[in-house]
Write a structure and sequence with these properties.
With about 140 residues, this protein is α+β, with helices and mostly antiparallel strands. Helix content is about 25%, strand content about 40%. The protein has one domain: Roll (Thiol Ester Dehydrase, Chain A). Strands 1-2-4-5-6-3 form a six-stranded antiparallel sheet.
């Protein structure tokens, strides 16, 4: 399979995933770019996403990064599940912010993969850094 065919498979897998992902749909995630082992997605923060401190609940940037991670690590059509994830919040997120999560593959092994996901706001300021390790099950998605 050439690179163009691999990237097309990646797009098809992520399209299948988003069609069946009610949580990402609720968050309003828009897929911006998909390539083998890579994803870039975006969402706009809404008022119902604010916590009791008046800032966005940390689960939202985490969930955006987690979706980018899932789209990047699964897009070879090898069902992969999170094995370990960490996140560092670097800047508060507010209502109206447009967040972009970009997942880049660091390691693609037979049974595991490692990804770094940067979450930035509309001013291109990093608001979170997420690292995820996945386990590859060997099962296909589509």
């Amino acid at each position: 399979m050439n690179q163009q065919e691999k990237d097309q498979l990646a797009i098809n897998v992520v399209s299948h995933m988003t069609d069946h992902d009610a949580f990402s749909q609720w968050m309003g995630i828009e897929v911006l770019e998909i390539k083998e082992g890579y994803s870039k997605i975006q969402m706009t923060i809404r008022k119902e996403m604010v916590n009791g401190f008046g800032i966005v609940h940390g689960g939202l940037p985490f969930s955006l990064a987690d979706s980018a991670f899932a789209f990047a690590c699964n897009n070879r059509n090898n069902l992969s599940v999170a094995l370990d994830v960490t996140i560092t919040f670097t800047k508060a997120v507010n209502v109206g912010d447009v967040l972009t999560a970009e997942a880049k593959e660091v390691h693609n092994g037979r049974s595991t993969g490692v990804y770094l996901i940067t979450v930035s706001n509309q001013k291109n300021e990093q608001v979170a850094l997420f690292k995820g390790t996945c386990f590859r099950t060997g099962k296909t998605l589509i």
